[in-house]
Amino acid sequence: MIDETVAEIRAMRTHSTSAVAVKATESLAELLDRDYRTVDGFERDLEHNAGVLRRSNPSHAALHNAMREVERTIVGEPTSVDDAKQLLEETIERVVDDIETSKAAAAANAAERITDGETLLVHDYSTTVLESIEAAAMGGAHLTVYVTEARPRTLGRKTARALAGMDRVDAHMVVDSAMGYALRDCDRVLLGITCITGGTYYNRIGTFPLVVTARELGVPVTAVGSGAKTIEEFRFENEFRDAVEVMREPVEGVTIENPSYDATPVGMIDTVITDDGVQN
After folding, report:
1. Could you tell me which residues are beta bridge partners of residue 143?
2. Alpha-carbon distance 92 to 33, whole Å?
3. Is the separation of the CB atoms in 220 and 214 below 8 Å?
4. Cis peptide before 250 (omega within 30 of 0)
5. Are the C-beta atoms of 160 and 173 separated by less than 8 Å?
6. What is the spatial distance between Cα 120 and Cα 115, in angstroms, rounded to a whole number?
7. Which whole number is the average pLDDT over 175-196?
8. Residue 12: pLDDT band by 50, 70, 90 thresholds?
9. What is the pLDDT of residue 30?
10. Sorting pLDDT into bands at 50, 70 and 90, what band is 233?
11. Bridge partners for 278 per DSSP
């Protein structure tokens, strides 16, 4: 389970950073079925596997925090292998619940600030953003939502399909380069959060030009996500995906660069909403 989860995270087959943290935490349950002669052996294996999972995507603050929390809670505490396994089982349940509860609370806080008749623009794919919009719509708000296609992986299409299934939501999709066209009709940009650290907001590639364009046009930008994605001591590492996503047939003399994330000064974001509340 752990090896498969690491491979899935590295391949970015799970598109939500919160979902990645949950899957990684749950995969540690594999250790419950292993045999250990000593508590030290159990703890070494836990630290090793938590480290492997954490390094499988060094850009995900939620993943980093989840693995660190599991380690902090368990290492040095149990006096027997049975106690260690029981504590791991309890910790997995608690950490997963904390992630899901924080995400839901952040979405609820954002939904409260979405008003009836608003036109929003969203980018790429964020389950927290989708939950925010769905909660607002279920509360009676009629919304128009533009979603960018989010090339090269076109995850905006996944977002568009989710929006199309929501009552009281009129979904539109545009190519990334049409963001300026769409923004002129928008009241707000609503984005997810990969990580906020050191005064920088990290999110999917395409976020920076979207924020800059929105500011130029006077459209406020809101970022929503779990507070666990805001972390002080964290070294964000961008990922560069396979060039074939951009161009299927290589061209001699052309280097294809395919970064996964954009870095945006957090001061350019008008509002950051987490489970802890709202920061303007």
Report:
1. 169
2. 14
3. yes
4. no
5. yes
6. 10
7. 96
8. confident
9. 97
10. confident
11. 273
Give CA–CA dist 218/76, Å, rounded: 53
How crowded is residue 79: how many other Cβ atoms within 10 Å of its Cβ?
A: 8
Burial of 148 (0-12, 13-18, 19+ CB in 10 A): buried
Buried/exposed code over 252-268 (b: 16+ C-beta within 10 A; e: otherwise): eeeeeebebbbbbebee
Where is 65: in which H helix or E strand? helix 61-74
Alpha helix stretches (DSSP H) within 112-244? 127-138, 156-164, 179-183, 207-216
pLDDT at 129 over 80: yes
Tokens 């927290």 -> residue: 128
CA 9 to chain centre: 12
Amino acid at 50: A
Tell me the residue ranges of DSSP E strands in the chain.
119-122, 143-148, 169-174, 188-191, 195-197, 200-204, 221-224, 261-265, 271-274, 277-279
Does position 240 have pLDDT exceeding 90, yes or no? Answer: no
Place of tokens 């380069």: 177
Q: What is the pLDDT of residue 228?
A: 86
The DSSP code for 12 is: T
- How big, in percent rounded to 5, are the helix, strand and coil portions of the chain? 50, 15, 35
- Work out whether the CA dihedral 42, 48, 52, 58 comes out positive or negative: positive
Separation between Cα atoms, residue 19 and residue 15, nearest integer Å? 8
Is residue 111 within 8 Å of 139, Cβ to Cβ? yes
